[in-house]
């Protein structure tokens, strides 16, 4: 389902006056479409292409939006009408393929809008015509007012710029002004074949017009008659009465909505007062917290100062301990050196002791041997002395017997 977003007109989803403004342009162009090959560039929902197909031999509707093309194919299945998805600045057709090209309310949507004009000139047969329209930037900006610029429009034109740009591409340009005007219609009860229309003389100011429309061609064109489009819903007063009734119903709905909104406002106001009271209590609590915070900050400052003092004392004590540790370390190192030297002296003493012990053992052994020898010598001396004192020895000596022991 194609929905109206403001970018393109969809029959049945827009105000009748808005739809008639767009249909009027297609009925204007349909007078030029009889028996011709027609291209509707930027066809949108396809209702205008269908209008052109009533007079043309063939019509191609082109639009860049796939959803618009699908909608057009589903709603306007005519034998001489087909729709295609394509960009208006690069259409898939050879040169001089069409006798009539229309582009209504398209050029202001394009970043490369000059390319649209060049593409239309390329596609036109030598005797063809290009019909293009766009809203008046001055009027459009004023009519939109506070709603701001149309978000779908890229470049809007005033009358001078529109004519200048068209004449830079096409040799012949006829400019028209489109306005939704009030009139009085005398219409027969039975459908007639002719219409006699009077349009009071007077030049309409371009800057005050709603839309600009131009018929462009490669060759000079004949005539530029005033065209009046009277749609089926042409009973303006009846339409206005219906519109007023719709507005009244809408106003009643809005009044009801305002009453509901007023009640909601009262409820919100009451809730706001409650919140305000809660906020006051919260502010008092916050002030109490602020005072406590100030006191705690002061206490923190005191603790920080005390900590600084304690830290300074600890630092001095640590420094003193470090010095003491350094001194004790030096003492330990000296003691370790002395201990190593004492151990080495002890080792030497032990070695010397072992040597002396071995020598003492040898000396003791020699002493025992000498003592034994001395004992033996003494025993011998005692025996010798005993022998000397023996009477038998003395007697033998006297008789010349036995050894001479006097010299020993």
Entry keywords:
about 10% strand; Rossmann fold; alpha/beta; about 400 residues; single chain; 7-stranded mixed sheet
Description of the molecule:
With 408 residues, this protein is α/β, with parallel strands linked by helices. It has a domain at 16-185 and 199-233: Rossmann fold, CATH 3.40.50.150. It has eight helices and seven strands. It has helices spanning 16-30, 47-53, 66-75, 113-123, 137-144, 159-167, 236-389, 391-398; strands at residues 37-41, 58-63, 81-85, 98-104, 124-135, 172-178, 211-217. Strands 3-2-1-4-5-7-6 form a seven-stranded mixed β-sheet, sandwiched between helices. α3 links the parallel β2 and β3. The longest helix is centred in the C-terminal third of the chain and has 154 residues, at 236-389. It is elongated, with a radius of gyration of 66 Å. The mean pLDDT is 84.
Q: How many E-type strands?
A: 7
CATH architecture of the domain at 16-185 and 199-233: 3-Layer(aba) Sandwich
Structural class: alpha/beta
Low-confidence stretches: none
CATH class of the domain at 16-185 and 199-233: Alpha Beta
Radius of gyration: 66 Å
**What order do the SSEs take from the amino end to the carboxyl end, as H and E?**
HEHEHEEHEHHEEHH
**Straight-line distance between termini:** 165 Å
The overall pLDDT, averaged over residues, is 84
Order of strands across the widest beta sheet? 3-2-1-4-5-7-6
Q: Mind sketching the topology for me?
A:
Blueprint: H1 16-30, E1 37-41, H2 47-53, E2 58-63, H3 66-75, E3 81-85, E4 98-104, H4 113-123, E5 124-135, H5 137-144, H6 159-167, E6 172-178, E7 211-217, H7 236-389, H8 391-398
